[in-house]
Amino acid sequence: MRQIVIGAAQMGGIQKAETRAQVVARLLALLDDAAQAGCDLVVFPELCLTTFFPRWYSEDPAEIERWFEPDMPGPETRPVFESAAEKGIAISLGYAELTPDGHRFNTQIMTDQSGQIVGKYRKIHLPGHGAFDPERSFQHLEKHYFEPGDLGFPVFRNLDTWMGMLICNDRRWPEAYREMGLQGVELVCLGYNTPSANSQNASESADLRQFHSDLSVQAGAYQNSTWVVSVAKGGVEDGHHMIAGSVIVDPNGQIVARTKTEADELLVHACDMDATRFGKESVFDFKRHRRIEHYGRITRQTGVIHPDGSEG
Ligand code: CDV
């Protein structure tokens, strides 16, 4: 049995006025809880150091710069890495990355149990729009603030396990899991910031949005026979409500643990990585069952083209 005790470190809203030091104190408190619970790995959400700033439009470089991290760890985030290493806990956390040559990504990193970064993922499926949209009830400007990730879907070895990461909207795309499934992934760690309202459809309920979130990660887990840890930043953030409902999903696609609150809350489950074997060697034995000669359209074509040539 290859057991990893995983902590899904759900966070409540981070207000615009909160400083990095205040947020880091919250991460450190969650790490203390994780040490008490005997966690080997703790997963923090997407953009876990700041409010979800893509809900505001800005062209002001100084305003934009305050959300981004030029270094990871940097002076303010180093205590999180140090605390985790002291406790022997691997961590995964999401942040807005500014590269030395000026590129901006929505990024998630993972460390080993000694605090060394062993995995990095840059969000590929950026939702929303690139310009201010007056038709929406609120903005979702990820395409304005970030470039699509340029690292593909890396799978790496950590804690004697093949691991990968996704970020929020990526969880809705089966291609993202399958890219990692084809590298033998056994644990997918992902964080999300999902508004409980649809800015383009007022009739969509928060319950339906939670259902779509669960459905996506459960399907991704089952169809690739992998564990998935899906961690929210939820609750009210600067007046905007986001779904919480963080879950740990087993390789059968079943939810084995779910958070109860919309606040900072550590969800803990002991996950056996060998539980991924059966599915990978039977119904999802890709080598035996996949038919790649029929999948060409998936990489050749982006949008819908009907058989009569019409698009839409
Ligand atoms: N941060 C996100 O990627 N949020 C999207 C919203 C816009 C739907 C999500 O897929 O949850």
Give the CATH H-level superfamily: Carbon-nitrogen hydrolase
Question: Which structural class do the helices and strands define?
Answer: alpha/beta
Tally of DSSP β-strands:
15
* Rg estimate, integer Å: 19 Å
Categorize the overall geometry. Answer: globular
End-to-end separation: 49 Å
Helix content: 10-25%
Q: Give the ordered list of helices and strands.
A: EHEHEHEEEHEEHEHEEEEEEHHH
Query: Judging by the overall fold, what is the CATH architecture?
Result: 4-Layer Sandwich
Nearest-integer average pLDDT: 98
Largest sheet: 7 strands, mixed
Uncertain residue segments:
none
> What is the third-level CATH name, the topology?
Nitrilase/N-carbamoyl-D-aminoacid amidohydrolase
- Continuous helix count: 9
At the first level of CATH, what is the class? Alpha Beta
Strand content: 25-35%
Number of domains: 1
Each distinct ligand:
3-methyl-2-ureido-butyric acid
